[in-house]
Amino acid sequence: MPIPNPTPSDHEPIKDRRPRIGLLGIMQPLYDDMIPGITERQADYAAQVAASLSETAEWTVSPPVRGRADAERAVREFEAAGLDGVMVVMLTYGPSLRVTRLFSQMRLPVALANIQPDPAVSPSWDMADMTYNQGIHGAQDTANAMVRAGLPFEVITGEWQSAEFTARVDRWARAARAVTALRSLKVGVFGYPMNGMGDARVDETAFLRKLGPEIEIIAPGALHRTMAELPAEAVTELMEWEDGAFEVDERLSKEEREDHARMQLGIERLLEATGCGAYSTHFDAIGEDGRFARLPMAAASTLMAKGYGFAGEGDVLAASVVYAGHQLAGDGHFTEMYAMDFPTDSILMSHMGEGNWKVARDDEPIRLIKRPLGIGGLDDPPTIVFRYQPGPATLASLVALGGERFRLVVAEGEVIDAPELPDLEMPYGQFQPATGVRTCMDAWLRAGGTHHMVMNTGARAEDWRVLCELADIEFVQV
Question: Quick one: average pLDDT of 80-99?
Answer without folding.
Answer: 94
